[in-house]
Amino acid sequence: MAARNRRNKRRGADWETELRDELRSAGMDVERLRLTGKDDEGDLVIRRGDGTFLVIEAKNAKFEPGTFVSEAERERANFAQHRGLDPASVDSVVIVRRRGASWRRAYVLSTVERYFELEADR
Fold first, then answer.
1. Is the separation of the CB atoms in 112 and 118 below 8 Å?
2. Whole-prediction pTM value?
3. What does the alpha-carbon distance between residue 60 and residue 15 come to, in Å, rounded to a whole number?
4. Helices (H), the chain
5. pLDDT tens readout for residues 9-24
6. Spatial distance between the Cα atoms of 46 and 42, rounded to a whole number of angstroms
């Protein structure tokens, strides 16, 4: 069991690295985030030219969209809080590796609320 867990962690780390490198080669200002635990901030962050940020939770795992998006939202809030940023200046998405496809064919997950910048549902 432990060997499988290590192998899965390695695959996840490899996916983060591949995604970071490919986004950089596409001209994006992207860095890897390394905080773990309850205050995790996501896996990658893209600095946009307009002063906003996009926190990316990269997943190479069984497809669980609700769980993934909830995690990305928590990590977006942590990223903003730790840096004293206005939460409105930080977006988040989940990028899920698609088996047998290039990184450009990975899935990007968000919510309708976040994607269309709608007021939070109460």
1. yes
2. 0.91
3. 7
4. 2-25, 65-83, 112-115
5. 888 899 999 999 999 9
6. 11
